[in-house]
Amino acid sequence: MDFSLLLQAIALGIVQGLTEFLPISSSAHLLLVPWLLNWESELLNSLTFNMALHVGTLVSVLTYFANDLLRYIRAGIASIRERKIGNDPDRRLAWLLVLGAIPGGVVGVLAESKVEEIFHAPNEPLAQWAVIAVAVIIALLGALLFIAERAAKHVRGLSEINVRDALIIGFAQAAAVFPGVSRSGATLTAGLFLGLKRDDAARFSFLLGASIIAGAGIKSMYDVVTDTASGALTSEGLVLYALGFLASALTGFFTIRFLLRYLRTNSTDLFVYYRWALAALIIIVAVLRG
User: Fold this and answer.
1) What angle do CA 241, 244, 250 make, to 5 degrees?
2) Which own/partner contact pairs does 229-236 have at CB distance under 8 Å and 24+ positions apart?
3) Using the 8-state DSSP alphabet, how is residue 177 labeled?
4) Are 184 and 202 in contact (CB under 8 A)?
5) In degrees to the nearest 10, what's the CA dihedral of 155, 160, 166, 169?
6) Which of 86, 183, 191, 210 has a Cα at 20 to 30 A from 112?
7) Residue 43: predicted pLDDT
8) What's the burial of 205, exposed, middle or buried (CB within 10 Å: 0-12/13-18/19+)?
9) Strand pairing partners for 148?
10) With left for phi above 0 and alpha for psi between -120 and 50, is residue 22 left, alpha or beta?
11) Mutual orientation of helices 26-37 and 47-64 as an angle, nearest 10°?
12) Terminal alpha carbon distance of the chain
């Protein structure tokens, strides 16, 4: 097995684990890192491998928020059994998470693969226009996050989220179907505009994204099983998938912990400046490569 492919799989897993939860766009980085470094493996640039990396970040979310998710699931089941939500904050949040996940789920099913093909046709190198378009999206979302940080009051917590908030954040999450937007970046930006505290906005974002990542993960596992059964995915490919998955899961867990702690006492400006610097670098490289 080519040792360089092993390193690339691990590197892409680390990239996914970092960028899925930091507000800097995992989809953009998974497109742009191979492009910048001239990595040309069809397997590692495939949508199925990207989805396998999402399974890793799903494990990160489920592990880190296991107690919270179990509590909300129990609360949701209890509300169905008793046909009552009442004043129970866990029951309210459980159903708000379900409501907020609907826009992203619908858009993901209907448009994600189509958008992926527009920006990156299978077995084709990234086009210059696509690279520049992703860079522009990265910069624009950075600008929105910059404005939201300054417009935000940072006073509302999870218990104060209502139906309108959940829907707004849910539609923001749906916009992440476009590379460069970032699921966590879009939902965090929306949460800040709605006056949420930074760490509570991020926590709601991660909990909300769990169902979307789970959907992508289930599809990925189905594709891996199908490809393995048909012989399209070899044992070498399975090793690469496993390495990417493990790197993504471990990196994602520690990234979640870092970000929630970081946002308690720091602004999001670091990620804004990173977005702008990355966008500028991408455009310069794209122009020089012609």
Assistant:
1) 135
2) 236/1
3) G
4) yes
5) 10
6) 191
7) 83
8) buried
9) none
10) beta
11) 130
12) 33
* pLDDT value, residue 52: 84
Q: Kindly give, in sequence order, each residue whose CB lies less than 8 Å from that of residue 68, ignoring residues fewer than 6 positions away.
A: 207
> Cα separations (Å) of 202 from 158, 185, 192?
10, 9, 9
CA dihedral 230, 105, 276, 56 (to 10 degrees): -50
Q: Is the distance from CB of 30 to CB of 12 less than 8 angstroms?
A: yes
User: How is the chain split into domains, by residue range?
Assistant: 3-289
User: Residue 194: exposed, middle, or buried by beta-carbon count in 10 A (0-12, 13-18, 19+)?
Assistant: buried
pLDDT of residue 19: 95
- Of 1, 5, 2, residue with least CA distance to 40: 5
Residue 155, SS3 per DSSP: coil
Supply the pLDDT for residue 115: 84
- Tell me the two tokens of residue 238: 């399975």
Compute the Cα dihedral for 201, 207, 211, 213 and give only its sign: positive
| Distance from C-alpha of 56 to C-alpha of 173, rounded to nearest angstrom | 19
| Ranges under pLDDT 70 in the chain | 1, 121-123, 216-217, 219-220, 223-224, 227-229, 231-233
The residue count of the chain comes to: 290
Residue 232 pLDDT: 65
> What's the pLDDT at 231?
67
**What are the strands, taking DSSP E only, across 37-114?**
none
Least Cα distance to 249 among 6, 10, 28, 5 occurs for 10
58 conformational bin, left if phi > 0, alpha if psi -120 to 50, beta if neither: alpha
